[in-house]
Amino acid sequence: MRPSLADDGRLLTATDVHVSDYPTVEAVRWIGQQLEAETAGRLRLRVYHSGQLGRENDQIDMARHGAIDITRVYSGALNNGWPRTIALGLPYLIRSKSHLRALIDGEVGARILEGFEARGLVGLAIYDCGARSVYNTRGPLRTPADLRGFKLRVPPSDIFLDLMRALGANPTPLPFGEVFSALETRLIDGAENNIRSFHSSRQFEIAGYWSETQHSYAPDILLMSKRNFESLSGDDQALLRALAQRSVAVMREHWDASEARAREAILTAGVEVNAVDLDAFRAAAAPVLARYRAHPEVAPLVDRIEAEAAA
To answer: How would you label 148-170 residue by residue, b for 16+ Cβ within 10 Å and e otherwise?
Structure first.
């Protein structure tokens, strides 16, 4: 039975592994505020942040089976089940934050979102989350050769496992919530992520070296249980879709401000930030890009992404 507020009301649940003031959490919270206002309290949304309801893979399964309504997950966690998402995470394919935003606001984003319904989910929105780079406890990384022998955490995604092997590292898939302790106990030497997550997770307190590899712009995706979405009226479905799309601007406003604050904070804390030989990293990653772009669902999206980069 769905949790309800009254006989004619409904309480929706949303999850995120990130902390309460993270931009994606703030954006989904905004959706809840608008949903409640526009339905006079008939529909409300409760947000469970900080991984209160489990890991991202757990939350994907819970949404597919209708145990929760909405979840925000990193696109890399979706690659195996929904191959179209692969295109957004491929190394050195997306060139910048503005390039990514143009893609996900257009045809590429629409095609990726529509691909979720075949396996029990509804794609509501795509939240960009900056460039991913490598950080570690041992020293600056300037070329792929410097990664040789490094044990690096990656999300549970074949792309990132293959990429880090191609760069010379030993990839270790771990849930996001386990990275701090793994760094602290030296189970791993480092990890890769965006700078906002590096700061909000406090991993910068242990890993004092941030190298600007900028190897991927893989975004986050806001999803809803297809079963639960279809249990809403047509008007409520349309409202929820519209609010999710409007929340993208809310998320970006929070993201841009907090990303700048995160960079300033890690520099103030003494993290050493260095540039890398991007041409060397692109060359080492090229076989990974070539292999994944051959997938029949990925190839047309990659072609479109490259065309928009050249425009």
So the answer is: eebbbbbbbbebbbbbbebbebe
**Four-CA torsion 38, 42, 47, 48, nearest 10 degrees:** -170
H-only helix segments in the chain: 23-38, 56-64, 86-89, 97-104, 107-114, 158-166, 179-184, 195-200, 226-230, 234-268, 278-293, 299-310
The predicted model scores a pTM of: 0.91
Tell me the three state secondary structure of residue 193: strand
Residue bearing tokens 């020293």: 139
d(C-alpha 100, C-alpha 252), whole Å: 12
CA-CA distances (angstroms) from residue 301 to 31, 97, 162, 219? 29, 18, 20, 15
Judge whether 52 and 58 are in contact, CB under 8 Å: no
pLDDT in tens, 52-70: 999 999 999 999 999 999 9
Please give the Cα distance from 33 to 16 (Å, whole number).
17
How many other CB atoms are found less than 10 A from the CB of residue 257?
Answer: 11
Centre a 10 Å sphere on the Cβ of residue 213 and count the other Cβ atoms it contains: 25
With beta carbons less than 8 A apart as the criterion, state whether 43 and 236 touch. yes
Which pLDDT value is given to residue 8?
A: 64
pLDDT digits (tens, 9 = 90+) for 202-219: 999 999 999 999 999 999
Work out the burial of residue 308: count CB atoms within 10 Å of its CB; fewer than 13 is exposed, 13-18 middle, 19 or more buried.
middle
Q: Which two tokens stand for residue 158?
A: 């074949």
DSSP line for 121-184: EEEEEEE----EEEEESS----SGGGGTT-EEEE-S-HHHHHHHHHTT-EEEE--GGGHHHHHH
On the CB side of 182, how many CA atoms lie within 13 Å of its CA? 19
Q: How far apart are alpha carbons 210 and 100 in whole angstroms?
A: 22
Q: Which phi and psi angles does 259 have, rounded to 5°? A: -65, -45
Neighbours of 197 (CB within 10 A): 21
> Between the CA of residue 97 and those of 128, 169, 185, 279, what are the distances in Å?
8, 26, 34, 19
